[in-house]
Amino acid sequence: MAVAIPRRFISLPDLAEARGVAPAKYTQGLGAIEMAVADPSEDTVSLAAEAGRRALAAAQLDPDQLGLLVVGTETGVDHSKPVASFVHGLLELPRAMRVYDTQHACYGGTAGLAAAVEWIASGAAAGRSALVICSDIARYGLGTAGEPTQGAGAVAMVVTADPAMLAIDVGISGASSTHVHDFWRPLGHRVAEVDGHYSVQCYLDALAGAYRGWKDRAGVTSEQLARICYHVPFCKMAKKAHAQVWRCDLDDRQHGDPLATWDAAAEELAAARAFDTQVAPSLLACSRVGNIYTGSLYLALASLLDHDRTLAGQRIGLFSYGSGCTSEFFSGVVGRRVQDRIEALDLGGVLAAREQITIAEYEQIMAEVSPQPDSARPGFAFTGVRDHRRQYARS
Ligand code: CAA
C-alpha cells in the first residue's frame, strides 16, 4: 500500500471558529481534527499517480509483471477518458494490460480491489499482479453541513497472489444495495449534493445487511475479528457503525433465544469498549485527512496496520460503503510481511510533510480553478489544459 495526500491542511477547531460553531462539534461530534485541502494542481489523477508510483516502489515490483490497473474514483476528470488511463501514461506502465476506472461513489475502489483479487484467484492473471488505486477529492462547499467532512487523497494497493499485508478471504463477503438518494453529484456540479442525516441511516442499514451476509458466509461474528475497518466519511461514523454491528449480533442472539434477557446498559458499555480496541486505531489518519471517498476504508486500514504492529496472522473485517447505494463487508488475514511494508508506507512521514494553512488561505484555494503547482515539492501535478488535453508534470 501507499498513500498520497495534498500538501496542505487546515485545523478543524480553526474552521469551527470561523463558522461560529463550537469546536467540540467537529472534534468530538464528528471526530475530525484536521482536513486535507487540495489545490487545483492536486487533482484525482496527480494524487492517484503519486500513490501508484509509491506503491510500486514499496513493493519493488517490476511494472512488466502488472496485468491490470484499476482506479476507483467518483471524482474523475473527464466523462470518457478514465483516470486510470492518465495514470497508466504517467507511470509508463506496459501496454499489455487492462486499464480502467470503476465507479460507485465511495465503493468504487472496493469494486476494483474485488475485480483484481478475483482475477488473480481465478487463475486468469497467470502470475501477473494488479495495481488498484482509490483517489478522490471530497467537496461539499463552504459553509455547508458537509464542509467539515471534506478531504482529499489516494491509496494505492499492489494486489498479488502472495500478499505481504493482507490476504483477503476470497468469496467470503456480504453485500447490500438499494436505490437511494443519500449523496450524489449531478453532471457538471463541482460539489456533491447530500441528504446528510439520511445518508448516515442509509450507511447503517446497508451495513446491517452486508454484515449479516458476511456472517452467514464466514460462520463467525464480529467478536472473532481482531479489528474492523469501516468506510470513514467522518470518524464518528465508524463509532456508529460499530454500535450497529454490535446491535446486529445482539438481535441475532436474541432471535436464537427469545427467552434470554439482556442488560442494555452493560451491552452499550461493552460496545464502547469493543470500539476502543477493535476500531479506534484505524481512525488516527482519517481524523487528520478527512473523507477521501473511495480511499477512506483503505486509509483506515493503513492507519490500523501502522498503529498496531501485532496483528500478523489475525483476521480483520472491512466494510465498504458507496452512497446510492451499495456496500460490502469482507475480511482478510494480516500478512507476515506487514511490518516491512508499513515502514515503507511511512504514514507518519506523509502526514508530517504537510503544511498547515489558515481558513482564509483555504477559502482562497477552494475558489481557485487554475493550477499553481509547487515545483519544489516532489510528486505529480496537474499543470493546465492545452487543446482540451489535461497536462501533468512530475517534479
Ligand atoms: N459538542 C460535542 N458534540 C456536538 C456538539 C458539541 N458542541 N454539537 C453537536 N455535536 C454532535 C451531535 O450531537 C452529533 O453527534 P451524534 O451524531 O452522535 O448525535 C454530531 O456532533 C454532529 O452534529 P449534527 O448531526 O448536528 O451535525 P450536522 O447536522 O451539522 O451534520 C452530517 C452532520 C450530517 C454528518 C454532515 O456533516 C454531512 O452531511 N456530511 C456529509 C455526508 C456524510 O458524510 N454522510 C455519511 C454517510 S454517507 C457515506 O458514508 C458516503 C460518503 O463518504 C459521503
What form results from the Cα inertia axes?
globular
Query: How do the helices and strands follow one another from N- to C-terminus?
Result: EEHHEHEHEHEEEEEHEHHHHEEHHEHEE
CATH class: Alpha Beta
CATH architecture descriptor name: 3-Layer(aba) Sandwich
Q: What attributes does this structure have?
A:
395 residues; alpha/beta; five-stranded mixed β-sheet; four-stranded mixed β-sheet; 16 strands; globular; binds acetoacetyl-coenzyme A
Question: What layout of secondary structure does this protein have?
Answer:
Elements: E1 2-4, E2 8-11, H1 12-19, H2 23-30, E3 34-37, H3 44-59, E4 66-72, H4 83-90, E5 98-102, H5 108-121, E6 129-138, E7 151-159, E8 166-177, E9 183-184, E10 193-194, H6 196-218, E11 227-230, H7 235-256, H8 264-278, H9 286-289, H10 296-307, E12 315-322, E13 326-334, H11 338-345, H12 347-352, E14 355-356, H13 359-367, E15 380-386, E16 389-394
Parallel strand pairs: 2-14, 4-5, 4-6, 11-12
Antiparallel strand pairs: 1-7, 2-3, 6-7, 8-13, 9-10, 12-13, 15-16
Helix pairs in contact: 1-2, 3-4, 6-7, 7-8
Report what the structure shows.
- The chain is an alpha/beta fold and 395 residues long.
- The protein has one domain (2-394): Peroxisomal Thiolase, Chain A, domain 1, CATH 3.40.47.
- It contains 13 helices and 16 strands.
- It has helices at 12-19, 23-30, 44-59, 83-90, 108-121, 196-218, 235-256, 264-278, 286-289, 296-307, 338-345, 347-352, 359-367, and strands at residues 2-4, 8-11, 34-37, 66-72, 98-102, 129-138, 151-159, 166-177, 183-184, 193-194, 227-230, 315-322, 326-334, 355-356, 380-386, 389-394.
- The chain has a 5-stranded mixed sheet, sandwiched between helices.
- β4 (66-72), α4 (83-90) and β5 form a beta-alpha-beta unit.
- α1 packs across α2 (23-30), α3 (44-59) crosses α4 (83-90) and α6 crosses α7.
- The radius of gyration is 20 Å and the shape is globular.
- The mean pLDDT is 96.
- The structure holds acetoacetyl-coenzyme A.
- Residues 22, 24-25, 28-30, 106, 145-146, 149, 182-183, 194, 196-197, 199-200, 203, 231, 233-234, 236-237, 291, 293, 321, 323 line the site of acetoacetyl-coenzyme A.
- Residues 22, 24-25, 28-30, 106, 145-146, 149, 182-183, 194, 196-197, 199-200, 203, 231, 233-234, 236-237, 291, 293, 321, 323 line the site of acetoacetyl-coenzyme A (CAA).
